[in-house]
Amino acid sequence: MNVAVLKRWPSWLLMLGIAVALILVGTLRDGGARSENDRIDSITKRVACPVCSGESVFESRNAASVNLQNRIEDLVREGRLSDAEVIASVQRDSSVQLLLVPKRTGFDAMVWALPVAAAVVAFAGLGLAFRKWMGAEDGVPSEEDRALVDAARQTAPDDES
Fold first, then answer.
1. Residue 44, Cβ density class (10 Å: 0-12 exposed, 13-18 middle, ≥19 buried)
2. Could you confirm whether domain 34-101 is CATH 1.10.8.640?
3. Where in the chain are the domains?
4. pTM
């Protein structure tokens, strides 16, 4: 294996480690303590209006959304449930899918993370391919090319008549 190739691997591994660390910090970061109103706003922004198309309970002024917002507000003000438990409670009482934002764990997280990971791997592969193509000496024949041309010259008849 080429020594230059071995020298490049640590830098690629370092970049991969930094990218993974940044993704983990971004997804697992906790914003700290929040007020009840902040929690209510956060939850209502993640819950879909049951009758509107593409609107959150936070944005919608529909009667069904107002009822959901009041229920979420009551559950938060009781102070017994976490945000995820409030959403689960509201979802259990509904016959339609209410989550606008996927869960951050399990299969839902994987469905959102895999396309991003595939795109990163694809761009890295393209970068490596372009780097290889740029390093190739275009227009300079290899020894195999020269041998083929010499063999063709020897077997070809002379057409100088």
1. buried
2. yes
3. 1-30, 34-101, 103-135
4. 0.49
